[in-house]
Amino acid sequence: MPEIVELLASSVHRFEGRPQDGPAPAPDGELRTEIEIRAGLGIAGDRFFGHLAHRDAGITMIARESLPPGIGLTQVRRNVLLTGVPVDDLIGAVITLDSGPGPIRIRVNSAAHPCAWMDVTIAPGAWRSLRGHGGIRCTPPRRRHPPRGPGADNLLTAFPPISGSGRQLSSN
Fold it and tell me: What is the value of pTM for the model shown?
């Protein structure tokens, strides 16, 4: 069954400079139990939130099945880790995240290509092995209907499941 495994929203760019120098330290709390998705802006608290250059990539996702065992979002710097979903096959689709509080429609725009940092944060050769399986770049919705209270139409939240909770991701 499709499942949200991990969520990440980091206020810092950890992969700057040369990979051989290593990534910057991770801030406390970048792995989240909940993320706040704002229409047209991305994930609140994330390093790319509201950046014009990342308008079509405000949310990034990757499949657990694409990663070696024990590797998660802190190593690949995507926002959502899913299992049971062939995310790399979804380019051009509109998908729906529904983890309990209500569905969130997200447009999948393009592939999220891996970078040379993967050879440092995962293992040598990971950059090459992740090509074509590096995840997806998505656009959060522009508006939500119906709004949940005055002025709340720009605020959406996704929660990861507790193991076996039945929270799901479905394609639409």
Answer: 0.78
